[in-house]
Amino acid sequence: MQASSRPTSEQLQAFAEGFNASAMLRHFGIELSFNEAQDRVRAKVVVRHEHVGGLGSDQAVNGGILAALFDLVLGCTPALIDPARRSATMQLSMSFLSPAIGQEIVAEAWVDRSGRSTVFASAHILNGEGEVCARAQGVVKFANIPWSNGRSPGAG
Question: What are the two backbone dihedrals, phi and then psi, of residue 61, each rounded to the nearest 5 degrees?
């Protein structure tokens, strides 16, 4: 991908705003964004009581929440190439290294390689101390249809 073909910050902002307006992200308290270099998708979660239960504890975030975060950030990596096209996660592989503990956790994903219709991406989740506590790899496929508004996942 050439630098000139990268999405603009405005396009990525609109993409993130569209996802952040979704009922699912609002319900789970997830905020989607892109890093300053615009080469990573980020999802930040302020940990709530409903998120914990991993290892049977009241501190570790449940693995199902971590899996959902990986699906979200990996599934959004094609936006780093073309935010006007829909995409879906086809394959997801996760490794949990240590408990995800802290008041806030962050998932980050980036493109490893891409073709015309498929993106290979990697991700990690950082605990409240900023340490990697889980890793994932995924394969994401571009859909052949644009978002309903033609530019981002937002309605209308």
Answer: -65, 135
Q: Is residue 154 included in any domain, yes or no?
A: no
The dihedrals phi and psi of 115, each to the nearest 5 degrees, come to -125, -160
Of 3-12, 73-82, 83-92, 104-113, the least confident = 3-12
Does any domain span residue 151? no
Q: % helix / strand / coil in the chain, to the nearest 5?
A: 30, 40, 30
User: Token match 């009241």: residue?
Assistant: 58
Q: pLDDT by residue (tens digit) across 124-144?
A: 999 999 999 999 999 999 988
| Euclidean distance between CA atoms 31 and 117, whole angstroms | 27
CA angle 47/11/107 to nearest 5° reads 25
- Asked if residue 49 is part of any domain, the answer here is yes
Q: How confident is the model at residue 1 (pLDDT cuts 50, 70, 90)?
A: very low
Range(s) of the domain holding residue 96? 3-146
How many structural domains is the chain composed of? 1
48 phi and psi, to 5 degrees? -115, 170
In a domain, 153, yes or no: no
